Structure prediction request, 723 residues.
Amino acid sequence: MLGNILVLLIIALILSGAVLKLRRDHKQGSPCAGCPYAKACAGGCSQVAPVNVVLKTPD
Amino acid sequence: MRIALAGNPNSGKTTLFNSITGKIEHVGNWPGVTVARKEGEIKSVYNPSGETVQVVDLPGAYSMSPYTSEESITRDFVIEENPDVIVNIVDATSLSRSLFFTTQLLEIGIPVVVALNKSDLKSKKKLSIDSGLLSEVLGCPVVEVAAIEADGLKELVTVSRESLGRKLKAPFAGYDPGTATEEEVRQSDKERFSFVENLVSRVEGRKVESRRQTRQDALDRVVAHKVLGIPVFALILYSVFSISQNSVGPLVADYLVGWIDAFYGFVQGLMGSGVHPLFSALLLDGIIGGVGAIVGFLPLIMVLFFLLALLEDSGYMARVAVVMDPYFKKVGLSGRSIIPMVISTGCAIPGIMATRTIRDERQRRTTALLTPFMPCGAKLPVIALFAGVFFADAAWVGTAMYFLAIAVVVVGALIIRKITGDTSKSNYFIMELPEYRLPSLKRAFVAMVSQGKAFVMKAVTIILVSNALVHVMQTFTWRFQVVGEGMAQESILASLAGPVSWLMIPLGFGMWQLAAAAITGFIAKENVVGTLAVVFGITNFIDTEELVLVAGESQVAGVMGLTAVAALAYLIFNLFTPPCFAAIGAMNAELKSKRWLLGAIGFQLGMGYTLAYLVYQAGTLITTGSFGSGVLGGLAGIGLFAGTIVYLVRLRENEDLEVLGGVA
Prediction:
C-alpha cells in the first residue's frame, strides 16, 4: 500500500514538474519548451511577427 | 543603457553578441542566419563599470533602403528600438561593401561606434586599414576587434559607453526617408557608393590582386557548380549520416542506453512486486521507457548536429544555396527560398520565420508552405529508428530523405505556381559566398550541446507528458476499466486512432498503434518514436551488446508488423505530412491568411499521403508481384487530392480569363 502511494507520488511529481516547466516557459514567452528558437517567436509562434517588426507589402 | 549591433550579413554580429554576453545564439558562416532580434546583457569582464548594458543583436542588412523588405525590417528595428548607441560591425576584410551601410547608420542621429571585426585576418589577407583616418572621416570612433578571438571587446564596450549622448555629423547626407521617391533614393545611393569608394581608397591598402584565382575559387568551381555540386552535396550528406548513424553515434549511444537500461532495472528492482502493475507500468513503460527510447537517440542527434555545424562553419552551406538556386528559380521560387530551407534542417520554425526576407508575397508564402518538408532535427530519431530497424542502419535512408524533400519542394512549388499563377517578377539571387575556413571545433561543440540540451528538455517535458497520456489511454477503456488481455482494441487510444488507421490501410500501416504514433507526432515529431515505444512496449531501440542501433531489429519489426516497404512508407508519411503544431503556428504567423494556412495543411497532408501510397503500392508490386491492400481506396483518396488541385488551377485560369475579358 505504502509502495503504491510512493510510486503514485513520484509519478505525480514527475508529471507536474513537466507541466509546470511547460507553463513557466509559456509564460516567459517560450511557447515550445526546449526549442532553442522559442524566444524568437515573441509572445508565441502564432503571433504575427516579432516585436516591432513591420513587414512591408510587396511592391 | 542599450546597444544595438548592426551590420552586413555575415559580418560577425552574432559571434560578437555571443562573446560579449556569454549567450549561445546560433551563428553560421553564411548570410541570413539571424532573422529576429536577440537581447542579452554584457558580461562584467567586458564592462568593469558595473552599469547594466543591454545588447540587441539585429538581423544583417546591406543598406537601409525603404524599398527592400529585409532592410526595412532592420530600419524599423533600429528606429523603434531606439538604442543609446549603435555598434556597427564592419568586416575589415570587406571594407568597401560594409561602409555603405555605415554611412546610412550615421544619418540616423544615434551615436555610432564602428567595430572593425575580423581584424585578425588583415595580415593574412595582406591588408592594412588606417583606422585613425577612417574614424576622422566618418566622425565616429573606430575600434579594431576580432569577435571570434574575443579581442578588443573590452575597449569596444568602453568606447561605446563613452559615446553615449555624443552628437554626430553624418559624413554623407543622403535622402529624406520620409519623402524621397524611389528615383531619388537610387540617385543618392549612387553618390553614396562613390563616396564610400573614395573613402576606401584613402584608408585601405591591399597587396592582393583581386582578379587572381584563389584556391577557394578553384574549389568553388566544383563544389558550387550547378551540376557537379549535387553529387558533392549527396556525398557529403551521406558521409554525415554514415558517421552519425553507423560509427560514432551508436558508439556513444551504447553507453547512454546502458545507463538508461540500468536505471530502468534499478527502478524496477526498487518497486519489486509490491507495487500495483498499473502504477509500475506507467512509471516504467510510460515514463522511463517512453522518454528513454527518445533520449537513446541523443548521441546520434548530437553527432549529426556537430557535423552539420562543422559544415556550416566551414562556409559550405552557402554553396548548397548557390547550387540549388537555378533549380528553385525554374519552379517559381525565389533564390532566397533556399536559405529558409537550409535553416529548416535544424528546426522548421526559424526556417519558416526566415521567409520574411523574401520580397515577393507569393514566393514568400510558397516557401513558408514548403519549408517544413525539409527533415528537421526532431524527425531525425524517426529516420534513425526506421533506418535501424528495417534497413540495417543504412546511411542512404537519411540521405534519400533529404533529396526526396528537395524533390517534394520542387514538385510542390510547381503545383502551387499552377494554382496561384506566377505573378512574380524575375529576380536575382545575390549571395555573398563566405570564405572557406577550417571549422571551429569549439563552435561546433557549443552548437551540438545547445541542440542536445533542447532535445533533452523536449523529451522530459512535452514528450514525457504525451507518453504518460498515451500509456493511460492505452491502459483504460472509456469506462475507465483496465483493458483486458487481448482486448487492446477497446482502449481509449485504440478507439481514437482506430478510425484514422482505416485511412492508412492503402499505405501499408493500417494499425491503430501506428496511427496513434503518427497523430502524437503532430505534438512533436520525436513523439512518433516515444509512442511506438509505449504502445509496443519496447524499452529502447539500441542494443548495448551488439553496438547496433536497434536491438533485435527483426524482433522490433515483427512487433510492429510491418514489411520494409510499409516501414519506408510510414517513415515518409511522418516526414512529409504537416509538421508539429509549433511549426504550424509559425506557418500561421508567416502566411498571414487562414485560406493559405488551411491550403498549406491540406497540401502537406495530401503530399505525405500520396508519397506514402506510391512508395507502398509500387514497392509491394516490385517485391511481391501484386499491389498491397487498399489500392483502390487509396487511389480514391489521391484522386480527391489531385481533383482539388485541378479544380483550383481551373478556377484560377477562369479568373485570369475573366480579367483578360474585362480588359479587352
